[in-house]
Design brief:
With 243 residues, this protein is mainly β. The protein has 2 helices and 15 strands.
């Protein structure tokens, strides 16, 4: 029997420590926010992933974000192979907004704990927005992690705001470089697409509740580029609070 070791190996205690560090960075002003949540998957993945993000705007153009995603470590047993999955990723990002060009560039560093990716990696994301039209905002993006076993994704999405304030959140991407999943039929490394179909509900002026169907494991760059085993969707939930 052969063993395919992939994704994240560390325990969920890393996420707890990261969450405490994140919360300590959020100060009581309206340019700071924190987001908590996760997604639960059945079938091949059979795991629940927790995520936390926190950010702060330093200027109209520059903001900082730190985050973590994690789950327990599990095995998927196939015919003569085993796929390991679960674990954690911690990340810090800086984003600069070129407002006149409707473009954002994010650069940072991530620390994945996986048999495939054990070392620190550079995180990057480029987003280009179309001007908002009657509540509809469209965007294209490219993102990934660079280093040993790099991953690059290309995709896009749409946000639509209803008159009630509720928002429809759609996004998807395909992997164009590197391997971001393991085939559950063969045990071989491969590429898979990711997607998210969500609804965002305002709670007062400073909070937002989200629900979604998604196959993305989490919110950090590496986790958001990784689909669940088999690519099947899970159920996600989130709560964002501004300070």
């Amino acid at each position: 029997m052969k063993t395919k070791n992939t994704r994240f190996k560390m325990g969920p205690q890393i996420v707890t420590l990261a969450a405490l560090a994140l919360a300590s960075q959020v100060h009581a002003d309206e340019s700071a926010w924190i987001k908590l949540g996760g997604a639960a998957f059945g079938r091949d993945e059979k795991s629940a992933y927790g995520s936390v993000l926190a950010g702060k705007s330093l200027s109209p153009h520059l903001r900082l974000q730190i985050g973590a995603t994690g789950s327990g470590f599990r095995n998927f047993d196939g015919d003569e192979f085993t796929i390991r999955h679960g674990g954690t990723e911690v990340e810090a990002l800086a984003t600069y907004a070129f407002e006149e060009e409707h473009v954002e560039l994010s650069l940072g560093v991530s620390a994945p704990h996986t048999e495939a990716r054990k070392n620190a990696m550079a995180s990057w994301k480029l987003m280009a927005f179309a001007p908002e039209d009657e509540g509809l905002k469209l965007y294209g993006d490219a993102y990934g992690v660079a280093g040993k076993d790099s991953i690059s994704m290309v995709g896009g999405g749409a946000l639509y705001r209803f008159s009630s304030g509720m928002m429809l959140d759609l996004s998807g991407a395909v992997c164009i470089m590197g391997n971001n999943t393991v085939n559950t039929s063969t045990g071989n490394n491969g590429r898979g697409g990711v997607y998210n179909v969500g609804l965002l509900f305002p709670i007062g002026e400073k909070s937002q509740l989200g629900v979604s169907l998604t196959n993305q494991l989490g919110w950090t760059t590496g986790m958001s580029a990784t689909p669940s085993l088999g690519g099947r969707p899970g159920v996600g939930a989130s709560l964002m609070v501004k300070f």
